[in-house]
Amino acid sequence: MHAGRLPALLTGLTLLGGITASHAISSDPGVLVVERVRGTPLASYREADLAQIFAYLDITTQTPWTNGEKRTYRGFSLLEILKKNGLADAKVVIGIAPNDFAARIDMREIQKYRPIVASQIACNATEAQSGACTQGKMRSLETEDFGPFFIVWPYEELPQSFDPSDHSRWVWFLSELQPDQ
Predict the structure, then answer these.
(1) In the chain, what are the domain boundaries?
(2) For 60-94, what is the HEC assignment?
(3) Which of 17, 31, 58, 91 has the fewest CB neighbours in a 10 Å radius?
């Protein structure tokens, strides 16, 4: 992992746009907190907790940061996480990163495009050649992959009408989910 890249990535998150959250509940990046009211957690999940409750789903897609390369991400249905925690009735959900970056995500987009809260990525040929992992095998998302949790959308399915410069829906380093209030 390239720890020196974290500040640059977090700065990049801030530059993407979005809204500012008042705080981040958990200081542990390996924990995803879901809350209905800001500051009052409904649930806290590590990847192992999510795996006990939800099925793993894969999305093979390019992202705005993979330079046209399709990668396979594995994680959990964002919609199912919201439903499990009584947030399926929210019109807008806010995804928050530890640096207080927050993105407003319309529930209709979540229902239509079915993004995942990714926690793993398939090792590609370049990574395998370096000895970092075995090609095609899943590995945990690291900082340079925008993990440990990253909201991933099926990029090719998103309509052309989406502002191509607005990638705020792709919340890197996701740490909290809450309804917009």
Answers:
(1) 5-179
(2) EECCCCCCCCCEEEEEEEHHHHHHHCCCCCCCEEE
(3) 91
